[in-house]
Structure formats: C-alpha cells, structure tokens
Amino acid sequence: MKKKIKKVNAAILIIGNEILSGRTQDKNIIFISNWLNSTCGITVSEVRIIPDVEKTIIENVIILSKKFNYVFTTGGIGPTHDDITAQSISKAFKVKYEYHKEAYSILEKYYGKKKFNDGRKKMAKMPEGAKLIYNPSSAAPGFIIKNVLSLPGVPLILNSMINNCKKYLIKGLKVHSKTINLYTVESNISKKLGLIQKKYKRNVEIGSYPFFRLGKIGVAIVIRSVSIIKLRVVNQELLRLANSKKIEILKL
Amino acid sequence: MKKKIKKVNAAILIIGNEILSGRTQDKNIIFISNWLNSTCGITVSEVRIIPDVEKTIIENVIILSKKFNYVFTTGGIGPTHDDITAQSISKAFKVKYEYHKEAYSILEKYYGKKKFNDGRKKMAKMPEGAKLIYNPSSAAPGFIIKNVLSLPGVPLILNSMINNCKKYLIKGLKVHSKTINLYTVESNISKKLGLIQKKYKRNVEIGSYPFFRLGKIGVAIVIRSVSIIKLRVVNQELLRLANSKKIEILKL
C-alpha cells in the first residue's frame, strides 16, 4: 500500500561515456527531475554521471540506493558490449543475471522467432527478481529491482516509458515554485534577500540566478516550497523588496 | 614545471539547486569536458550535481579531490546567500575563509569604492592560499586551491574564463575520436562489435549509440583512443564489418 509521506527523494545515475566525453548533451536529467516532482512529488537530490565501467556502476548503485529513496539509472540496457547496466546492478545486489521470462517473450514476439538473435536476447537479461517497466516505443523493457529503476539512455524512448514507473513509486509532496524576474544585479539585493531566506529557511528555498535578456541584465529569484501559502507570503516580501529599491519587475 | 604524463583525469561538481530541480538545462558539463580534452588532454571521469547545501559540498569536495587529478566546481560563487561554494571549500580543506587581497582590489576597482557593498565584497572571500582564475566578463574571479578549481555557473561567464585555468593544469594525452554512422540496428552488429572491442580493449573504446535521422534509424559507432594509428585500424575493421553485412554508411 502506498503511504503519503513528506519527503521522498531520488538520485539519477547517468551511465554513459558519451555524456562524460562531451559528445552528447544530456536531456534526461531535466526530464526525469521535472516528471518526478510534478507527477510523484519526488525530489531529485543528487545526480552522478559515470562511465560504462562495471566496477564504477556497482559502487555507485550500492551507495546511491542506500542513500536515497529511489535511484533512476539511464543508459546501458541495449544489445551491445557497452551495455552493462543490468549485469552490473545484478552484481551490486548479489543476485543472478538471467533471462526475465516476460521480457523474453515480449522481445521474441516483437522481433519474431527467426530474427531473435543473441544481441536481442541480451535485452531480456536482468537481475533476478526484477519487475518490468514497459516500453511502448521499442519493446525492450526497463526494470526495477529493490529501489533502483533502470531506463534506457535515448531520450525519446525514456520519455515514452516514464509513466510506467509511476506504479512502483511512493508519492511525496510536490514542490511548488515561482519565479520573480528583477531588472537589477544580485549584489543590489543580496543582503535583504539573505534576511528573507533566513526568516523562512524552514519552509521556503530561495535561489538567485543572473540572466541576460534583450540586452539587459537581471536576476531571476526562484522560490520553492511544498506550501503554496508560504510561497505567497515570500512572494509578497520579494515584491516589497523590489518596491523599496525601485526595481523594475519583468513580467513574462 | 609541467610534466607530460599519460592519464590525467578530472571530476566536475555542479553545485546548484536549479540544475537538480530541472529548472535549468546544464550547459557547462559538455563545454568543460570538450575543452579539457581538446586543450589539455584531460579526461572527465565523473560528474556530480549536488544542491546548495554546505555539508554536501564539503563531503563531495573531499571525496572527489582525493579521487581525481582535478575537480572543477561550477556555481555558487556570486554575492547572494545561496552562493556558498568558497566557504564550503574552505571548510573542506580546513583553511580560513578570508578576503583575497588581489580579488578585493580587482572588485573594488571594477565597482568603484562607493558602490563596493557587502554583497560585492563577499565575492572577494576565498579559501586561504587560493590563486585567482581571472574573469574577463564580470570581474569576479574564480579560484584554485589544491586541485580544486572553482568557476561560476553562468555559462557565458564560465566560457570566458576557461582559458585562464590552463596554466594551473598538467597536460595529459588527448583522446581522439571518430564516428561511423551505420544505417542498421544495434542488434544486427552487436556480436561482431563486441569481438572488435575485445580485440582492442587496451587501446580503443568503442561506443554504440542508436539515432533517428530523416525518418531512418541507425547506429553511431564512436571510437576513442589516444592513438590515432589504433583509431585508423579499428575504423578499417568497422568498415569491413559494414561491408560484410551490406550496411549502408551515412556520410555527413
């Protein structure tokens, strides 16, 4: 049974030399993080990007799965030699790496018996006891074992599968956010902003991010909280701060 | 004196709630990684993205600075309350967090004595013994202490500063790469590709990445090595593999 608890967090473990080497721009972090917060009220508290090295994957799966409520891995579940996520997670949890019956039959059906070669069969191998995360794009399923959910690295395919993770996740409280864009520089408001953050440190997180837009510089103040009421209160304080310093607010 | 050594690696530590929450797309990883490899022959071996939490920053700076030749931090060196990178690194290395004389005078000159307020002064505070990484965009310098280099989070500013890191870095061997785009699916070549990887495992790293282009699916085979000669040899093997399977090669 799912319980409504206050704070649920997750780590994302990006497995892939192509991201580390700077060849490929990661697009999965932003997608997973937004989906987890908006759909499940789960906060991403850490991200790691690591190479396709078995020992490194094992170490990180062990550490992150102990430290966070969930771990989402991306990448390394395809048919080629550099796809070693499933076997590494099996070793991390000291369980067999073996054919998952249902995954095997899904893939056999998808490719047809004749074309179901060794590479394709490899995609049905998972840690013993894993449950499937179905894949509506290209059949090969992801899986969950304990609190680790394994998804593919290709963003289009990952995006199509993410809703199938939902049934495995406990829901937390959604973090709401609001952005106030001010035409000023950070150092003009940093003192007052620090005082406001101090006053509401238990409930509201205030971030300050410089921006350049239409030739003008400004600061985006991002406030985040599970409480919409507290968010409104801090928003009012920020508007008062802008007013008192005669700072123009950019309406988007 | 700089020594030419074989493998030099680095970690990137992205400090910022805005990246973790999915509000902002990180652009610094890809930039730093490509610059480090092409300019200094340094390989990024791990990336971590963590929140603006002092304890977390301290822990990660200690772990990563022991594990890798260099650590590049991004974010958290501005004037606001959420900019706590410099003070956290000071604590990680158990040194004072104090005004850096040269940084102070650079900033005082940039803003003018009258406008040099507390927020701006904060940007001159660094770990004791830090050396400056000059900032041609907005004056506020980054710094290096031990093997940790701290840069700002705003990509435009970071990009303008990166060449000023060079003098602090030992050079390694550049990794060269080549991509062969094949109009096939991974599972059609996975077995042979695995054999080729096995044969050259000491010198060449082979990655396989599915792509979708102009309505057709394909596989990008990326080969990486410090040896251009070995890269050519593996490239030839891959062309033979494509030939033997009558796979069309996409020329870009």
Structure description:
2 copies of one chain form a homodimer. Chain A is an alpha/beta fold and 252 residues long. Chain A folds into 2 domains: 8-168, MoaB/Mog-like domain (Molybdenum Cofactor Biosythetic Enzyme, Chain A), CATH 3.40.980; 176-250, Ribosomal protein S10 (Alpha-Beta Plaits), CATH 3.30.70.600. Chain A contains 9 helices and 12 strands. The first copy, chain A, has helices spanning 17-20, 28-40, 54-67, 85-92, 101-111, 118-122, 155-161, 186-199, 228-244; strands spanning 8-15, 42-50, 70-74, 97-99, 125-127, 131-135, 139-145, 148-151, 176-183, 205-213, 216-225, 248-250. Chain A has a 6-stranded mixed β-sheet, with helices on both faces. In chain A, strands 10-11-9-12 form a 4-stranded antiparallel β-sheet, with helices on one face. In chain A, helix 3 (54-67) crosses helix 4 (85-92). At the A-B interface, helix 1, helix 2, strand 2, helix 6 and helix 8 of A face helix 1, helix 2, strand 2, helix 6 and helix 8 of B. Strand 2 (42-50) of chain A pairs antiparallel with strand 2 of chain B, so a sheet runs across the interface.
